Amino acid sequence: MRAAYCELDKWRFDPRYTQGTCPICGWAPEGAPKAPRWLAIANRVDWELLGLFLLADALIVFGLVVAHAAGLLPAR
């Protein structure tokens, strides 16, 4: 299936690049490819927030390494 036409929106679109649905209203033509399950789950994740938390964790670890190397942490 190359292109589909949504009667509601008067919009021609290619379902291969819109996860099988109309990008405006969400209508899905018959025979349109469906997105794999992993892609549907990945689209629900807020990747920017996850990246921000990972960056904060890395900065804390690097800070602890530098503090240990500088002798600022108490020795055991």
Overview of the molecule:
By secondary structure, this protein is mainly alpha-helical. The chain folds into 2 domains: 1-44, no CATH class; 46-76. Helices cover 41% and strands 8% of the residues. It has 2 helices and 2 strands. The protein has a two-stranded antiparallel ribbon. The chain starts with a strand and ends in a 7-residue tail after the last helix.
List descriptors.
single chain, 76 residues, mainly alpha, 2 domains
Average pLDDT score: 90
SSE sequence, one letter per element: EEHH
Strand order of the largest sheet: 1-2
Q: How much helix, percentage-wise, in residues?
A: 40-55%
Uncertain ranges? none
- What distance lies between the first and last C-alpha atoms, to the nearest angstrom? 67 Å
- Strand count, sense and closure of the main sheet? 2 strands, antiparallel
Computed CA radius of gyration, to the nearest angstrom = 24 Å
Query: What's the number of extended β-strand segments?
Result: 2
Helix/strand-derived class? mainly alpha
**Annotation field: number of helices:** 2
Shape: rod-shaped
Strand content: 5-15%
Number of domains: 2
Break the fold down into its secondary structure elements and pairings.
Elements: E1 4-6, E2 11-13, H1 37-44, H2 47-69
Antiparallel strand pairs: 1-2
